[in-house]
Design a protein that fits this description.
The protein has helices at residues 2-5, 10-23, 37-48, 55-69, 75-89, 91-95, 99-123, 136-156. It has one domain (2-156). It is mainly alpha-helical. The protein is built from eight helices and no strands.
Amino acid sequence: MNRLRNRTWVLPVSVALALLLGLVPLPGLLQPLRPYWLALVLAYWVIETPDRAGLGFAFCIGLLADLLYGGILGEQALRLVVMAFILQRFRARIRFFPLSQQALAIGGLLVNDRIIDAAIHLFAAEPVLPWSYWWAPLLGMALWLPLYVLLDALRLGKRGR
């Protein structure tokens, strides 16, 4: 238990890196494929440490992301709170899935996130997202396994052998 207390830096650092990865400029062709790093990192923390990452946490980092990314204020916060709520509701089931099934569940949540994003753009009378933006959840689903293993190793202090 003492080792876990010494690893409290992993949560804020992982969120900060996810925010920075969302700011990295990409060529126009690759922009629609950008995974929603913040949602992936949030999903890990809600599944593994729900006492540290919940709806309030999701809302706060969503507002921070809205300010950093310059979008509609509250858009990211809403998207992340919806994802965190669904993850909290089904946490007991998702946590004990094999990682391949967890990746499918995360992919479904990322598709749900795209639907919410498209609805927000529709209601705000902003341009509709192009069809290429629907590929990003597949990339996020593929990144779930390495991200989960990396964050788990950092959180628990495991060393590769």
